[in-house]
Amino acid sequence: MVGTLVLTRHGQSEWNKKNLVRNKLRELNLTSQFTGWKDPELTELGQQEALKGAGELKKYGYTHFDIAFTSALQRAQKTLEIQLKEIDQQGIRVVKDQALNERDYGDLTGLNKDDARAKFGEEQVHTWRRSFDVPPPGGESLKLTADRVLPFFNKEIKPLVEKGESVLVAAHGNSLRAVIMALEHLSPEEIINTELASGVPIVYKIDSDGKVIDKKILK
């Protein structure tokens, strides 16, 4: 029995957009805000990214899901809503749980990354961003994020996929990194350097033993 697990990172949010405007001369969004558990809406571009991802699902024939999961934050929920509507799957059960929320950035939340460097020092901010197990004050490291995400994933999502069901998950960069790390048996160094594009579905085929037998990135 082989199941299907599709992971999608939410599209661009309003906070992403504000920082892209501030960062016009640097095409990479290197100074975006630490959004974490704050709840900005999707931008028009973010909605388009979600729609494009749904188009890829249709293109490759991933248009039937048994259940969907998302976080407690509206940018992920809206991404899921757009994609389910586009593939005509609006009637399926949707589970919303804060276990799938983005990494909590604690005292960094709301700060532009340049402002955070000015306040805490470039080296310290780099450590918080790029280490696996050093959390910012009042927040979560990627390890702590995984400690929150994986029990929920292992209890609520993975068993469904192992039974052969098709499951769609719309969440966040770091909550999805935790899942990917577990599925692909990646090291802390490898997962820290794993980038997830907004709205782009990642499709895993998983057997009854929980082993990944195929992976596709639909873009």
Descriptive account of the structure:
- The chain is about 40% helix and about 15% strand.
- The two termini are about 25 Å apart.
- A hairpin with a 4-residue loop joins strand 5 (about 200-205) and strand 6.
- The protein has about 220 residues and is α/β, with parallel strands linked by helices.
- The chain has one domain (about 5-215): Rossmann fold.
- It is globular and about 50 Å long.
- Residues about 20-30 have low confidence and may be disordered.
- It contains eight helices and six strands.
- Strands 3-2-4-1-5-6 form a six-stranded mixed β-sheet, sandwiched between helices.
Topology of this structure?
Blueprint (H helix, E strand, L loop, with lengths): L1 E8 L4 H9 L21 H16 L7 E4 L3 H13 L6 E4 L16 H8 L1 H9 L11 H21 L3 E6 L1 H12 L3 H5 L8 E7 L4 E6 L2
Helix pairs in contact: 2-3, 4-5, 6-7
Catalytic activity: (2R)-2-phosphoglycerate = (2R)-3-phosphoglycerate
Pathway: Carbohydrate degradation; glycolysis; pyruvate from D-glyceraldehyde 3-phosphate: step 3/5
Pfam families: His_Phos_1 (PF00300)
